[in-house]
Design a protein that fits this description.
The complex is a heterodimer.
Chain A (H helix, E strand, L loop, with lengths): L12 E3 L4 H11 L3 E4 L5 H6 L6 E4 L9 E4 L3 E5 L4 H6 L1 H6 L1 H7 L5 H6 L2 H5 L9 H6 L3 E6 L2 E6 L17 E7 L7 E7 L3 E8 L8 E6 L6 E3 L2 H5 L5 H15 L10 H20 L4
Parallel strand pairs in A: 1-3, 2-3
Antiparallel strand pairs in A: 4-5, 5-8, 6-7, 6-8, 9-10, 10-11, 11-12
Helix pairs in contact in A: 10-11
Chain B lengths: L17 H4 L14 E7 L5 E7 L1 H5 L3 E6 L6 E2 L6 E2 L5 E2 L5 E7 L2 H8 L3 E6 L6 H5 L27 E9 L2 H4 L5 E9 L11 E6 L5 E5 L4 H12 L6 E5 L16 H9 L5 E4 L2 H7 L5 E10 L5 E13 L5 H11 L8 E10 L13 H19 L3 H8 L21 H12 L13 E12 L9 E7 L5 E5 L8 H13 L6 E2 L4 E2 L14 H28 L6 E4 L2 E4 L6 E3 L7 E2 L5 E2 L4 E6 L21 E12 L4 E13 L4 H20 L30 E9 L19 H13 L5 E2 L3 H11 L1 H11 L3
Parallel strand pairs in B: 1-14, 10-32, 12-13, 16-17, 20-21, 30-31
Antiparallel strand pairs in B: 1-7, 2-6, 2-8, 3-7, 4-5, 9-17, 10-15, 11-12, 11-14, 13-22, 15-16, 18-29, 19-20, 19-28, 23-24, 24-25, 26-27, 29-30
Helix pairs in contact in B: 9-10, 10-16, 13-14, 15-16, 17-18
The chains are: A alpha+beta, B alpha+beta.
């Protein structure tokens, strides 16, 4: 047994399919022996530090996976290989899908966002996938494709309890579907390094019966959408009181992890006060 | 002083801009014909006996030239305590300790071969903290400690894990305990931290046909590399040439000998073939020495009128597996003992302690960072207990040049500087007594804090420098000095001195950043902010020599006496006669009379310097003069504590030093860099270890450096410009000074903001939350009321 800290990458075959069919055929053929690369900001480090694959399949050659499409009334479709920087620069994302935009712009720096992709971010939840929680509050679903066909699952179902992905060895995350957000909705993301991320979305704030408030947490490795918050906010009480009720409820539901980056105790503090901060900001409640 | 001089005191721009466009050469750029690559293989145990290393598979791989293990190189390496093995021998002493070196035609092959090396270990109980290391039952990490070569002033305790024990005794601290009204007893700690310089270490070596060892590497001090290679490997200095290139940052982490001995010894084994070792970032965390963690216990007493009476300290540095430089770092902490204050009775024991962790070394500040981080919190705590304003308390006890007795029992020199002045001015600039503006967000609370420090170079009494100045036939000059350039800008300041002395434009002065030990004159080391002071004085002597020769030649040309010649504006002129001048270019190679007769030949000045008056220290009391000069500094900050995230943001930082400045632009750059580094050390940076001693964060992914958004919104740097005697234009270096006050200043400011004192660095959000819960749980109750409503 010995410790080797590599500079060079070990050997693998690099494959660059130019169509979705070709991509899925390669993944079907090589399965777990093949890693999928988009921006490479995570994968290349993992390979250098010990992960081994015989094949690395680049999805950037498949044109449609780099597209952002918005259709009024239908929503947004984002290809898995769309870079974070492209999302940040997209006016629709900035104006209509604010919570996602707010999360994306807090990831890394410009250099990193120029390369890193939304698909890569979603598929690496062990590093805290900052896009999952915003996508969850937006009610997004993802398209998972293989030679066997495509399936759509809700974003928060992708990461299994404990951190594994729902993907089978022949499957690839191909697109993210985000429905049209509730009219007049606002969103914001609160982030503390790789320790915690909180996404919140709110709409119809002044009308309790139609009020929408959703909250999700980007804890590595298992992001969490807190169901039931909306019910609390449908009550006819002052917002200030509802925020308190919601946080007390959330504290019973969300049990953040303890790891090398932070203790559970510190994350619990962020859940309580970070959520309070975010909700006040979003709902326009003065302190 | 800007008006007196044309170049000295001016913000002359850096001329090493080739770094910006990629033209600068670093050790990583070295490529020698036929060069082989080295890859190190290390052990995944903190403390273990090596049972077997099987290299047979690696040797079968085409392109692999050789594999070496510890037994191939029976040398001990080091400067103050030669405790390092070239590669682990017998046992490994820390997680990541190199056990083998693979040599191959390419890095790719070397890395593949390295992965085939099969080693077997028998784990031993590991020592992972200072407390564990000091326990009488602790395993002894260096069993042969007593046999190591060491400097005469280093006192290891064989049979224990104490790499060096230092004593400082002044007055009678035990007895003085009876005469005080207030005593504060506290313990301060820090995790190990990293220099995090931009350029990871690289080094190449080859042996010339005449047996000369030639080395190119990333280091601070070329002559120290030469000297230590000679001393450690038993080679004559005459057979070693060390090449200094641009070095991408050092901060003390590249002082002395780094890993140069590895390529040198491997090249020797391979008949002189050029070999190259380049560390990646992860390897740099494992294989290069880091800043030690510390544990400083302090008990300090004062009378109710605010006079400091005694100080008792136990200062421990967590030296890791190899304590080489750290044994001297602890001397610096111990002998500077109590910061810039006079205390009549001092009793400090300093220890550098071996643990089974990553090796440690010097770091910007050389022990004074640790001292300041601790003692300046102690001062605030004492002031509060006494009910005296912290600034007033500091001023009351500040050292007085020419009067005060230092911890090492010398009268502080008259020209030492202005300790009270820097404190007073920093307090003024930060508006210490003006309450900070309230944040609009009630969960953000602001406070102001201050800290002061003193620092001088820690060097042996014979730490010498020398310089050569050559006058060129176009009137320009080439300056040869031995000091290393790794970003601090000393060579620009030296060029300004030359321009000033000769009255020539600074553009006509060339000081190459590249040097080789066989081509430039000697300097001891480039450490401790000594470059400008020591090499500067050697340079001024060289310039005097050069000017003397110029005057001699010009006097003969003018047919006057030598003292009737003056040098101004790049010309030698007869005093008082504007018409009778000869431009320097016409004197560079000697002077040619109209007849053709030529005198003197090329003009070359040379100068040397060695500090006077510094001595070895008494081993029992520390009495003596350890430093040629000291510099005083004070820093003030305004911080904002965010109670939601427990993150601390420094809004404003002010830095005041008393040193006279040659280049205010460069000094300001140093100050900004020092401030940001200090913020990282205070709030973010920690090398983490898991339960078996493996590094948790050996990369910039998880070793948290300060980023541009951590930079204070406002930064002010000022110098009181107090001239130092026997210094070039009265100037002193400030490289280390600028990083010193921030840890304690920030800790003190946090306390003044929220009444919570954190005595462990870095003050991470995690630690701050814990401290708030322990010391001021009411803050969270109140915050909950405001934000959550319950």
């Amino acid at each position: 047994m010995s410790l080797i800290l590599r500079t060079t990458l070990p050997d693998f075959d690099y494959l660059l399919p130019s169509s979705l069919d070709e991509l899925l055929a390669l993944k079907a053929k090589y399965g777990e022996r093949a890693a999928v690369i988009a921006g490479g900001t995570v994968l290349l480090n993992l390979i250098r530090l010990g992960f081994r694959y015989d094949y690395v399949i680049d999805i950037k050659g498949v044109r449609e996976l780099s597209a952002i499409e918005y259709r009024e009334g239908k929503g947004l479709v984002i290809g898995a290989a769309v870079t974070l920087r492209d999302l940040e620069n997209n006016e629709v994302v900035r104006d209509k899908y604010r919570v996602l935009w707010d999360a994306v712009r807090q990831i890394g720096d410009f250099h990193l966002r120029n390369r890193a992709t939304i698909g890569g971010n979603i598929c690496n939840p062990t590093l805290q996938a900052d896009t999952i929680a915003p996508l969850a509050v937006l009610g997004a679903s993802i398209e998972i494709s293989s030679m066997r066909g495509s399936r759509r699952v809700a974003i928060w179902e992708l990461v299994k309890e404990g951190g594994g992905l729902l993907l089978d060895p022949d499957e690839i995350l191909t697109r993210i579907y985000i429905p049209e957000p509730p009219k007049g909705s606002r969103g914001a993301y609160f982030k503390v390094w790789w320790i915690a991320g909180i996404a919140a979305l709110a709409a119809n704030i002044d009308n309790p019966r139609e009020r929408i408030v959703r909250i999700a947490y980007s804890f590595a490795p298992s992001p969490k959408l807190v169901e039931g918050v909306e019910r609390i906010f449908r009550q006819e009480k002052p917002l200030k009181v509802l925020i308190g009720d919601a946080i007390n409820y959330i504290k019973t539901i969300v049990t953040p992890p303890s790891d090398a980056r932070a203790s559970r105790e510190y994350r619990e503090h962020l859940v309580e006060f970070g959520t309070a901060y975010l909700l006040r900001k979003l709902l326009g409640v003065e302190v | 002083m800007s008006s007196e001089f044309r170049y000295v005191g001016q913000p002359v721009k850096r001329f090493d801009v080739d770094k910006v466009y990629g033209g600068a050469l670093f050790a990583s750029d070295i490529e020698l014909p036929g060069m082989l690559w080295i890859k190190l293989v290390s052990a995944p145990y903190s403390h273990a006996r090596i049972k077997r290393i099987d290299c047979s598979e690696a040797l079968k791989i085409p392109g692999v030239v050789a594999v070496f293990t510890g037994e191939d190189f029976p040398y001990k390496v080091g400067i103050y305590a030669a405790d390092r093995d070239v590669l682990a021998r017998g046992k490994v002493l820390y997680y990541g300790h190199p056990i083998a070196a693979v040599v191959a035609e390419s890095l790719d092959i070397a890395e593949k071969a390295a992965e085939t090396i099969d080693a077997e270990f028998e784990p031993l109980p590991a020592v992972l903290s200072i407390e564990e290391a000091l326990s009488p039952r602790a395993p002894v990490i260096h069993e042969r400690l007593g046999e190591y070569r060491r400097a005469s002033f280093i006192n290891p305790v064989p049979g224990t894990n104490i790499a060096n024990r230092v004593k400082l005794r002044k007055g009678d601290a035990q007895k003085a305990m009876e005469d005080v009204d207030v005593v504060v007893e506290e313990t301060y700690r820090s995790d190990p931290q990293s220099h995090a310089y931009m350029e990871t270490w690289a080094g190449a070596a080859t042996i010339r046909s005449d047996g000369t060892v030639e080395v190119w590497s990333s280091h601070q001090s070329p002559f120290a590399v030469r000297n230590l290679l000679a001393m450690s490997l038993g080679l004559p200095v005459s057979k070693i040439v060390v090449h200094h290139l641009y070095t991408g940052g050092g901060f003390g982490g590249k002082a002395g000998l780094l890993l140069e001995h590895i390529p040198v010894l491997i090249s020797m084994k391979l008949g002189g073939r050029p070999v190259f070792l380049q560390l990646n970032r992860e390897e740099n965390f494992y294989y290069m020495a880091q800043k030690p963690g510390f544990l400083f216990k302090m008990k300090t007493g004062a009378t109710k009128d605010g006079k400091l009476v005694f100080h008792i300290g136990e200062y421990y540095l967590d030296a890791g597996a190899y304590a080489d430089y750290t044994v001297n770092v602890i001397r610096s902490s111990t002998f500077m003992a109590t910061g810039p204050y006079e205390i009549p009775h001092i009793h400090v024991d300093g220890y550098a302690v071996y643990t089974n962790k990553v090796p440690t070394t010097a770091f910007r500040g050389f022990g004074i960072l640790e001292l300041t981080a601790s003692f300046e919190q102690q001062m605030d705590i004492l002031a509060e207990k006494l009910g005296i304003d912290p600034i007033e308390f500091r001023l009351k006890n500040a050292l007085k040049p020419g009067v005060s007795i230092t911890p090492t029992q010398e009268v502080l020199a008259e020209d030492a500087g202005d300790p009270a002045g820097v404190i007073r001015r920093a307090a003024e600039l930060i508006g210490y007594h003006i309450p900070p503006q309230r944040s609009e967000e009630p969960w953000k609370v602001r406070g102001k804090g201050i800290a002061a420090a003193w620092k001088g170079p820690v060097q042996p009494p014979n730490a010498a420098s020398s310089a050569i100045v050559k006058l060129n036939e176009d009137g320009s000059v080439d300056v040869l000095v031995g000091t290393g350039e790794f970003g601090q800008g000393t060579i620009i300041a030296l060029a300004q001195i030359v321009a000033e002395e000769l009255g020539i434009p600074v553009e006509k002065v060339r000081i190459s950043p590249y040097r080789s030990t066989d081509l430039v004159p000697y300097t001891w080391q480039t450490v401790g902010s000594r470059g400008l002071y020591s090499d500067g004085q050697a340079l001024i002597r060289a310039l005097q020599d050069l000017k003397d020769q110029i005057k001699e030649v010009a006097a003969r040309a003018f047919n006057v006496f030598k003292d009737e010649v003056e040098i101004r504006d790049g010309k030698a002129c007869v005093v008082g006669k504007h018409s009778e001048c000869i431009p320097l270019e016409r004197l560079a190679l000697g002077y040619t009379f109209p007849s053709g007769e030529t005198i003197h030949g090329p003009i070359i000045g040379r100068g040397s310097h060695v500090p006077s008056g510094t001595t070895y220290l008494d081993p029992e009391t520390g009495k003596g003069n350890p430093k040629p000069f000291v510099t005083f500094v004070a820093g003030g900050v305004e911080v904002e504590v965010d109670l939601v995230t427990m993150q601390v943001r420094v809004l404003k930082a002010v830095l005041v030093t008393d040193a006279r400045i040659i280049n205010p632009g460069l000094a300001e750059g140093q100050a900004y860099g020092g401030i940001l580094m200090g913020i990282g050390l205070a709030l973010k940076e920690a090398i983490g270890f898991d339960e078996i001693g493996a590094l948790r964060n050996p990369s910039f992914l998880e070793y948290r450096l300060p980023r541009v958004e951590d930079m204070p919104v406002e930064m002010i740097f000022e110098s009181l410009n107090v001239p130092q005697r026997n210094a070039p234009y009265g100037a002193k270096g400030i490289g280390e000074l600028t990083a010193l006050p921030w840890q304690a200043a920030i800790a003190n400011a946090i306390y003044r903001a929220i009444g919570v004192r954190v005595k462990e660095y870095p003050i991470t959000p995690e630690r701050l939350l814990k401290a708030v819960k322990e010391q001021r749980p009411d803050i969270l109750t109140e915050l909950r009321k405001i934000m959550v409503g319950v």
